């Protein structure tokens, strides 16, 4: 890897971008601040269970391709583990482990009866046919079926996976189990036991965090300038919610580039033209780069795409008052420190993106009870959960005089550490 800073060796550089290592660093500091002994960190620094699977899929040209998949279960002291499945060419064991730890922290922050889990398959779904994706989704479930289930570990969507993929996975698990088992997975289509509000839940949760964060900075959402990186599930719904609330969405992007208009982009048009992978900028010639997008002048910046987007290289150039992390792990630790010193309010991923797992929890509860709630009921419940989580983290940051990320980790680890203690594990 070539680095811009000659003092950074490739190893140092890789280490700073190592999401597992940086997650472990903050978990360790959070536990120290809370006064827990070292063995608690030893338990929580890695998933309790990690499965690697090889999935053979018959491709459309009749060849057999073998895909690698992972499922990480971070900690099940509180309850079953829960977390999405990511289909992406860059999925790695380390990333899946870090994502599972973040899921545990999210569940702790918004007080859900879960530990964290996460899965991923190394693949590029944009290059695969519908039939090949179905084969891969079903093959993954067959490979991990022994360690997942509605009372063990409950998958959900993440990057490049959607309700259709959840439906195939649910169907495959139900066949293995020999009865209809909607509680096995969340993020399903409504007709298969999905919940109202699940598709937009992550963005709704981010919106609630934005509403709370602007109060702290004396900014009004109406008329504010918003920049969003990523135009997939999280980013596109968020653009819609911000636009509808009267904010000016001046910048958006996808994996191929960004669009900028200081007068506000035509969000309804962009939503209409985006494809199912969250791509829209390919239709335009006057695009900017993702690096340029992150440095645009705005009030609220929302990274809603992938990891390690705000680093020590560009943290000094960020021109926002508030950053709300819809994506998992978009900001490195060094960048978090720089942004905090610059007085930028950063609402961390483990809090801001917890709306998705919260409505997934509502979906699982509805599947278990067989009684379904209206969209209004879901919204009301989500609002209560997210504002409570935001205020718990904000007040911890204030009283402990720490940044919001460390405060969120402190709130997030406490419940699982206590549960592990009561169980006599530590
Ligand atoms: P998605 O697959 O629907 O969309 C991803 C978007 O990011 C697409 O627009 C894609 O083009 C863009 N993108 C991909 N690589 C990029 C790059 N290198 N630079 C800029 N843009 C890039 O995914 P999603 O579900 O919206 O998830 C986005 C982020 O939010 C992820 O970090 C995910 O873990 C997190 N998240 C999602 C949920 C959820 O419920 N969907 C919940 C919590 C957290």
Structure overview:
This protein is α/β, with parallel strands linked by helices and 426 residues long. Among the domains are: 46-181, Rossmann fold (3-Layer(aba) Sandwich), CATH 3.40.50; 201-352, Rossmann fold (3-Layer(aba) Sandwich). The protein contains 15 helices and eleven strands. The protein has helices at residues 10-16, 19-34, 38-44, 93-109, 130-144, 163-177, 201-216, 233-244, 267-273, 290-294, 333-341, 349-352, 355-369, 375-400, 404-422, and strands spanning 49-58, 64-73, 81-88, 115-122, 153-157, 225-229, 248-254, 257-260, 300-303, 322-324, 345-347. The chain has a six-stranded mixed sheet, with helices on both faces. A five-stranded mixed sheet has the order 1-2-4-3-5. β7 and β8 (257-260) form a beta hairpin. α5 crosses α6 (163-177), α7 (201-216) crosses α13 and α14 packs across α15. The longest helix has 26 residues, at 375-400. Bound molecules: nicotinamide-adenine-dinucleotide (NAD). Nicotinamide-adenine-dinucleotide binds at residues 157-160, 202, 229-235, 253-255, 278-279, 290, 304-306, 326-328, 353, 356. Nicotinamide-adenine-dinucleotide (NAD) binds at residues 157-160, 202, 229-235, 253-255, 278-279, 290, 304-306, 326-328, 353, 356.
The proportion of strand residues reads 15-25%
Question: Mind telling me the C-alpha Rg?
Answer: 20 Å
Fourth CATH level, the homologous superfamily of the domain at 201-352:
NAD(P)-binding Rossmann-like Domain
Look at the structure and give the mean pLDDT: 95
Strand order of the largest sheet: 8-7-6-9-10-11
What's the CATH architecture of the domain at 201-352? 3-Layer(aba) Sandwich
Distance between the termini: 41 Å
Order of helices and strands: HHHEEEHEHEHHEHEEHHEEHEHHHH
